[in-house]
Amino acid sequence: MHAVAGAAAVGALLWTAWRGVAQPHVALAYGMLIALGEAARRRPRPHTAVRETAPLGSAGTLAYALLGEVGGEPTSHGAPQVVAVVLGATLAGAVGRPPALDRLARRVLNAGFAAVCVQPLHASGALGRWLAHSPYYALSLLLLLVLTALCDAVLAAALARARTGGPYGRALREELRALPGVGSAIGASGVVMALAVAAAGLWALPVFCLPLLITQLSVHRYEAVRATRRQTVASLARATEIAGYTPAGHARRVATLGRAVGRELGLSPADLTVVEDAALMHDIGQLSLLDPVPAGATEPLPAEERRRIALLGGAVVRQTGVPPEVALVVERQADPYRDQPLTARIVRTVNAYDDLAADPACGPLRALERLRLATAHDHEPRVVEALARVLARGGPAPPDL
C-alpha cells in the first residue's frame, strides 16, 4: 500500500510539473488550509478514542478533491493536481514532525480516489449538465463521501491487519463502527466546504476553518483530561505492587493481554478501555488484607474472600472518577461468569491465567487446561478460546495504530 501511494504521489507530481498548476490561487488557498490543519496536529496518546489527529487537514483534503466551482466559475484542476497539492501541503505542515507513513499513504490514496470519482465528471461537464444546479448535486456529493469513507475504512483495516496480524474482517468492522464519529463530521465538513466555496468563493474557507480548529482544540483538551485520569489509574495499579501484595508487572500484563483478548472478541474501543482500566485496578481490594496473599494470586482463595476483595476494590475504584462500568467489572470478579458482563469475564479469565501461569508448578499450558476445565462455572468458553488464540500467535497484538 505504501508503494501504491508512493507511485500515485510521484505520478501526480510529475503530471502537475509537466502541465503546470491550474488556478494557482485556488491551489494555494487549499494548500494553506491543509498545511494549517497538519501543523495543528498532535500525536495521539496510546489507546485513546481519537482516530483523526488532523481533522482540519482531512476536511480540506476532501473539499479540494470534491471542488468543481469557485464562486460560480468552473475549476480546471484535475485529480493529479489534487494529489500533488495534498501531498505537498501535508508535508509542509508537518515540518519537524513527519506524519506516519500509514496516515500519509491513506491521505494520498483517499484524495486520489475522491478526485478520480469527481474531477473527470467536472472536466467533461457531466455534472454541469445533470446535477450542478439542481438539488441533487449535494446528494451526489454525499454519495461520493460515503464511497470515500468506505475506501478509507478498507485501507485502514488493511494497514491494521498488516501491523497487528489479526483477522481482516474484525479490523474492517472496527473501522466501520468508527465512521459515525469524527469521520462523519470530517466528511460533512468537507462536502459543505466544497458547496460553500462553489457559491461564495474562497472567502468561505476561513469561515469553516475557525470552528474546526476550535473543535480540534476541544478534543485535545478532552484527551488531556483522559490522560490525567489514566495516570491516576496506573498509579493505583502500582500501589499493590509497591505494597508487596501482587507481583511486579502483574496488573500491566493482565491489562495488555485482556485488551488483546477483547480485540479478538470484537469489542468496541470503549469496551476495550473498560477492560484495560479494570484489569489495572482489579487487585486494589487486596490492600484491605492484613497479610498479602501468597504470590498475589486470588484465584485459589475461597469464593467469599474473593467476593469481599472484589467489592472493596470496586468501592475504591468508584472514587477515582473512572466510568462506572470499570467499577462494576472489578466488583463482579468473583461472580459466576453467567452473571458477569463480557468485560468482567475477560478480566477474570486473563487474571486467572496470569496467576496460574506464574506458578512454577503449573505453567502456561496447564494454566490453559485448568481454565478450560473450569468453563462450567468460572470462565466462559468463548473467552478462554479467544485467550488461547491470542497466546498461540505469540501474545498480545501490537497497540492500535
General description of the model:
The chain is mainly alpha-helical. 70% of the residues lie in helices and 1% in strands. It has 16 helices and 2 strands. A two-stranded antiparallel sheet has the order 1-2. Strand 1 and strand 2 form a beta hairpin.
Mean pLDDT: 80
Q: Strand order, main sheet: write it out.
A: 1-2
Residue fraction in strands: under 5%
Return the structural class.
mainly alpha
Integer tally of domains = 2
Poorly predicted ranges (pLDDT <50, ≥5 residues)?
46-50, 397-401
Q: Specify the number of helices.
A: 16
- The helix/strand order is HHHEEHHHHHHHHHHHHH
Number of E-type strands: 2
Q: State the helical fraction.
A: over 70%
- How would you characterize the largest beta sheet? 2 strands, antiparallel
The dominant shape is: elongated
Distance between the termini: 16 Å
* CA gyration radius, whole angstroms: 26 Å
